[in-house]
Amino acid sequence: MLNMATEDTINAIEQRLQDIETEDDLIAKHKKERRDMQAQIQKMKNAVPKGDKKKKKESTDQIAKLEAELDARQEEENDHFSRRTLKKEKEPNIVKEKITEDLENADSDDTQEPGVQNQGKKSKAQKRREKKQAKDKEREVRIKEQESENKLGPRQQEMAKIKAILKQRGLALFEVRPGSI
């Protein structure tokens, strides 16, 4: 009887994991389930009248039960998925394909900047950070170009003449920053 129950649960888990091929897909599925559950919890909380302590306690118990069930189910799915991927990795064909994919990824990683990994779909925050880094690099390049151009500018030539005259007289030029004493 116990063996039959575990077979049914394994079949149910396999049914739920049927469309999931990667760990990222599983994580996305779990996040979606968590969001849906949070929405359901919010509806339950809003349905409870303000002064009804009994209903509030019932809904709190039911919420705790739902969260525990979701956590347990997701843990089972994680375990089952990891076991399933381990079985697949033991097959030699898949191992060979994985090695060739790794080699291809290594070739494509050489063209990328160091520290940036090829993750497929990037989050908005990651795209924003990369865009900001690119702007900062471009800004630094422009600043260096401007500095090199300024070395030949009239202001720099005038400062060089002033420093030469002061040096002949045995004096020196000191910069005073604002706010310093």
From TrEMBL:
Superkingdom of the organism of origin: Eukaryota
Biased composition (Basic residues): 121-132
Start-end of Basic and acidic residues biased regions: 58-101, 133-152
Region feature Disordered, mapped onto this chain: 29-157
Biased composition (Acidic residues): 102-112
Protein name: Uncharacterized protein
Record organism: Lymnaea stagnalis (Great pond snail)
